[in-house]
Amino acid sequence: HGTSTINDQGHLEIGGVDTTALARDYGTPLFIYDVALIRKRAASFQQAFIEEQVPYQVAYASKAFSCIAMFQLADELGLSLDVVSGGELYTAIQSGFPMERVHFHGNNKSLMELEMAVEAQIGCIVVDNFYELGELSRICAERNVQMSILLRITPGVEAHTHDYISTGQEDSKFGFDLISGQVHQAVEVAQADGNLRLLGVHSHIGSQIFETTGFVMAVEKMFELIKHWREVFDFTPQVLNLGGGFGIRYIEGDTPLPAEEYVQKMIEVVKRQAAEIEMDMPEIWIEPGRSLVGDAGTTLYSVGSKKHIPNVRDYLAVDGGMSDNLRPALYQAEYEGILANRANEAPTDTFSIAGKCCESGDMLIWDLPLPNANHEDVLAVFCTGAYGYAMANNYNRIPRPPVIFVENGEAQEVIKRESYQDLLRLDVPLANNVAK
Ligand code: LLP
């Protein structure tokens, strides 16, 4: 997929760059991002809105993968940015990202984070609860400024990877629920508040979704609310934010829809519902994370030890694991991979790919067909661009890998490898070290 090919030497090439050369130059483990593929993914979401002439914002859900270079790329691509913490906001500020295109999410934003967002004059805060509504209003009043907000609702549509269920009883830590009437009260409070500009509503139904049904149901729920608000509060939202969650293909069995199809369906349903109540077409905002960067990312590992258990299994251990990719351990997530240096060789064996962390659960891939691999080889694991580096950690004091952007035959390091010194940066030795 993307710009991946196999070159004359039988090496995996991404963005016109030989991945084995990257492994040699930067060491392993190593994250590589195919920038052209990120461009293509962003354009498919945007193009679908442009074709239908619907006002929109595509906000990159930066939790999927954030760093200064990624935010600069998102800016260049005309994306907005969804941040969920002071740290992500700080990164956005430092990257020079236009603050008016930043949206701030979270179920428990701290006062410091709210102040930071107000002072940075970001585009919009997605308000999650009454506590936040009150504090945000106070913070704005103290500074005599206005802040645009969306209200996050729990639409009672819960997306489960392959299907969805409509939950009558909502049970989620996020947003205003629809059952208690809370959401109506929130509209009333926000509308009456001179410091808050209520733009509209937000819902996010889940992640790695392969169908449009859940989004359709969320839109329908929103319009039930909108009808009520127009009658009772004379309030018509100008923005409907339908969140992210568009699926990607990690393994052969995954069947996501093309980006355009999710967007077209959303537009179709919003148009129909708006027409029914003679409402102007609202702006539609979405927040893809995984589907913008997931399949653009590849992780390279060096093959190390092997363990053959007769009649049971062959383990092949690599120099990373749950420290750079938590998803298999956390969600039993599945991945595919090949040997980057022998990319044109047919598989002859089956290996289960083990990480190097001290946990039996630190397995990256079970039963992967590969050529007979040995410790000269480089394993490439695909589709690690979302929630890979973002959830990387220093378990076992393993330094986090570097991140390289590749495009048109050029490679650029955008995050450096952590060093052992970096690991000690925040350590404070005992004041009275009696051991010495
Ligand atoms: N908007 C909101 C409000 C969200 O909570 C999320 C993801 C997104 C957008 C982006 O969703 P995406 O398009 O990336 O699916 N760590 C998990 C995924 C957690 C997603 C949390 N929220 C994983 O590795 O699968």
From TrEMBL:
- Which Gene3D superfamilies does the UniProt record give? Alanine racemase, Lyase, Ornithine Decarboxylase, Chain A, domain 1
Q: Would the keyword Hydrolase turn up in this protein's UniProt record?
A: no
Q: Which residues bind pyridoxal 5'-phosphate?
A: G245, E287, P288, G289, R290, Y387
What does the record give as cofactor?
pyridoxal 5'-phosphate
Q: Which Enzyme Commission numbers does its entry carry?
A: 4.1.1.20
Enzyme class per UniProt: lyase
User: What pathway does the annotation place this protein in?
Assistant: Amino-acid biosynthesis; L-lysine biosynthesis via DAP pathway; L-lysine from DL-2,6-diaminopimelate: step 1/1
Q: Which CDD domains match?
A: PLPDE_III_DapDC
PTM annotation (N6-(pyridoxal phosphate)lysine): residues: K63
Instruction: Please report the stretch or stretches of sequence annotated as the Orn/DAP/Arg decarboxylase 2 N-terminal domain.
Output: 37-293
Catalyses which reaction(s) = meso-2,6-diaminopimelate + H(+) = L-lysine + CO2
Query: What does UniProt list as catalytic?
Result: C358
The record's Gene Ontology biological-process terms are:
lysine biosynthetic process via diaminopimelate
- InterPro entries found in the cross-reference section: Ala_racemase/Decarboxylase_C (IPR009006), DAP_deCOOHase_LysA (IPR002986), De-COase2_N (IPR022644), Orn/DAP/Arg_de-COase (IPR000183), PLP-binding_barrel (IPR029066)
Keywords attached to this Swiss-Prot or TrEMBL record, sorted alphabetically, are:
Amino-acid biosynthesis, Decarboxylase, Lyase, Lysine biosynthesis, Pyridoxal phosphate
The residues that the entry says bind substrate are: R290, R327, Y331, E359, Y387
UniProt GO molecular function? diaminopimelate decarboxylase activity; pyridoxal phosphate binding
General function of this protein: Specifically catalyzes the decarboxylation of meso-diaminopimelate (meso-DAP) to L-lysine.
Question: NCBIfam families, per this entry?
Answer: lysA
Assembly and oligomerization: Homodimer.
Please state which protein family the record places this protein in.
Belongs to the Orn/Lys/Arg decarboxylase class-II family. LysA subfamily.
Its protein name is: Diaminopimelate decarboxylase
Which species is the source of this protein? Halalkalibacter oceani
The upper taxonomy is: Bacteria, Bacillati, Bacillota, Bacilli, Bacillales
* Recorded name of the encoding gene: lysA
